Automatic annotation (TrEMBL):
Its main location: membrane. This is Cytochrome c. Its cofactor is heme c. InterPro entries: Cyt_c-like_dom, Cyt_c-like_dom_sf, Cyt_C_IC, Cytochrome_c-type_DH, Membr-bd_ADH_cyt_c. Coiled coil: none annotated. Residues 35-137, 179-287, 303-393 form the Cytochrome c domain. It is found in: Cell membrane. It comes from Roseococcus pinisoli.
Length: 417
């Protein structure tokens, strides 16, 4: 008999205990699973993680303020720093945060982390993102996570909120739909969390799912209707139009600006063609929300339209042309423009007041900037020219009052913009 036999017998006896012990320990991602890490890198791009967690030292070190209905919430550090980031988190901790909105310490997270959408992410994808984040350089950056006023600062309040507005559960493919449609549904309704911006919320910050993708005012902009409406949505866009917009930030209908420009630059422009087409197929199949038809346009000879036209000719026509057609592949057309006819005029007002630099992508590296006119035009003049834009060249939308412009100007000043 081999002298090692007793040791082997002891090992055999202890093996089940070790298995139980290891099973009780938090599971960790394999840092050498390069396939999972690369998949996680792509998925983190699809989820646009860096736009919220952006920091001057790292795309993921956090600290950026996210405007919520009840105040501003600072995005946390999600680098693997052990003291200020996710260095001590397990993949189970990470999945619970994404899918349930619960932190490592058991505290409830706010839906600034869009867990009402991320709950649909598969565990495989959650683990891959976790594996990737463990490979990014750790950055020591302590973020103040308690910035909301009382009583919203009490995280236990989220128990009630979750009970009212949160429906946990993984994505389930819809039988009878194509694989492409289901992939688009998974991306739009889950990881891409498009509805977090484009779906209106109620007074308590819960999404109005009956109005999914109908658009809403958000952070001083208006996230437009991206449902199947022919009037305010993308009902007239083709699949190729949607793909081109997401890949380049521009198409024959409009050009991305503001937060959407950042989404295009950091996320959608880096996605695969197949995923972009899946998103397009799914979005174009969504029902039209909001008004089905346009209201009557203001009469062209009304005083406000005549004043707005004069301001437009003096300040805007050199680039956008008198007929509002713009310059193909450079200056967006204002005719039959989706942004111009949204329920809220916030985006147009902001563009006139502060100007904008649209998305710059590999496919469209030259992003034509729009200059600011807030220094030159008073509130009434801005309101008149925006009213003119919303009711010319096939557009039709309610007029804009000077008081709305005044409010926007004050908000921009408060933000230092």
């Amino acid at each position: 008999m081999s002298p090692r036999t007793p040791a082997r017998r002891l090992a055999a006896l202890l093996a089940p205990a070790f298995v139980l012990l290891l099973g009780a320990l938090p599971a960790q991602a394999d840092d050498n699973d390069y396939v999972a890490i690369e998949r996680g890198r792509y998925l983190a791009t699809v989820g646009d993680c860096s736009s919220c967690h952006l920091h001057r030292e790292s795309p993921y070190a956090g600290g950026r303020g996210i405007e919520a209905p009840f105040g501003t919430i600072n995005a946390p550090n999600i680098t693997p720093d052990p003291e200020t980031g996710l260095g001590r988190w397990t993949r189970d901790d990470f999945a619970r945060a994404l899918q349930q909105g619960v932190s490592r310490n058991g505290g409830h997270l706010y839906p600034a982390l869009p867990y009402p959408w991320f709950t649909r992410i598969s565990r495989e994808d959650s683990d891959a993102i976790y594996a990737y984040l463990r490979t990014v350089p750790p950055v020591s950056n302590a973020v103040n996570r308690d910035t909301l006023p009382f009583p919203f600062s009490i995280r236990a309040v989220m128990r009630v909120w979750n009970g009212m507005f949160f429906e946990p559960g993984r994505f389930q493919p819809v039988i009878g739909r194509t694989d492409e449609w289901n992939r688009g549904a998974y991306l739009v309704e889950g990881l891409g969390h498009c509805g977090a911006c484009h779906t209106p919320v109620n007074a308590l910050g819960g999404s109005r799912r009956s109005q999914s993708f109908a658009g809403q005012a958000l952070q001083g902009w208006y996230a437009p209707n991206i449902g199947g409406s022919s009037y305010q949505g993308i009902g007239e866009w083709g699949v190729d139009d949607v793909v081109q917009y997401l890949r380049t930030g521009a198409n024959g209908w409009t050009r991305a600006s503001g937060p959407m420009a950042e989404v295009v630059q950091r996320s959608t422009s880096r996605m695969t063609e197949a995923d972009l087409r899946a998103i397009a197929v799914y979005l174009r199949d969504q029902p039209g929300r909001g008004p089905a038809t346009a209201p009557p346009a203001l009469a062209a000879d009304s005083p406000r339209m005549r004043t707005g036209q004069a301001i437009y000719v003096d300040n805007c026509s050199a680039c956008h042309r008198r007929d509002g057609q713009g310059v193909e592949s450079m200056i967006p057309s204002l005719a039959s423009n989706q942004i111009a006819v949204q329920a809220g005029p916030e985006t147009l007002i902001r563009l006139v007041l502060s100007g904008s630099r649209p998305a710059a992508t590999d496919a469209e590296p030259t992003a034509p900037a729009m200059p600011a006119f807030g220094w030159r035009l008073n509130d009434a003049q801005v309101a008149d020219v925006v009213t003119y834009l919303r009711n010319s060249w096939g557009n039709a939308a309610p007029p804009v009052e000077a008081s709305v412009v005044q409010t926007m100007r004050r908000q921009l000043a408060a933000r230092g913009e």
